[in-house]
Amino acid sequence: MKNNNMDWLQEYEEFLNADKTPIPESVNRRILANLYKLVNPSPIIIFFKILGIHSVISFLSLSICHQFGLNPFNTERSLDSWMMSAGGHNACMVGCGVLFVGASLFLSGYFLSIEEVTALKRTKVLQTISLAVISLSLLIAAGAQVALTIGLLWFIGALIGGMIAVETSLILKRV
């Protein structure tokens, strides 16, 4: 074992004393470009990753909180019953929006890298609005009965939930 350590030390000293061979400019540019992509990921790629995660999480969230009367699992009770009794229909719509979009963005923070979550924070308003609009559109396409005021309350909840989820994800990712 001691001989192995001596070999490592000798190789390290040879490395330090080696001639300073210049790195070809093309190799240097390629390395820097790859590093830039890793440190600054594309917001569009991040959005598509979030959309994939959201497709699973949003479907699961419908099992615990029926959105606009959609109940794909035919469960009797859900969070919407509790939210309706606790705060009324308006609070229920805001709460459902918070849960539907917020849960997806929060759990996305678990699956994305720290660089991707940091980039998500820079574009969180656009990403959250896009995710909420797509979600609301798909809920309507699935047969949800959405009135303008109710949809607006849900959308406000989605924005609040999304913003809080992105910030919380970044804080937890840094820990």
Characterization of the model:
With 175 residues, the chain is mostly helical. The chain has one domain (42-174). The protein is built from 7 helices and no strands. It is elongated and about 75 Å long. The protein starts with a helix and ends with a helix. 30% of the residues are buried. The model has no long low-confidence stretch (mean pLDDT 88).
Query: Helix/strand-derived class?
Result: mainly alpha
Mean pLDDT across residues: 88
User: What percentage of residues falls in helices of 4 or more residues?
Assistant: over 70%
Distance between the first and last residues' Cα: 37 Å
**Series of secondary-structure elements, N-terminal to C-terminal:** HHHHHHH
Largest sheet, strands/sense/barrel: none
Number of domains: 1
Q: So what's the overall shape?
A: elongated
Number of strands: 0
Residue share in β-strands: under 5%
Radius of gyration: 24 Å
Low-confidence stretches: none
Give a quick rundown of the structure.
The chain has 175 residues and is mainly alpha-helical.
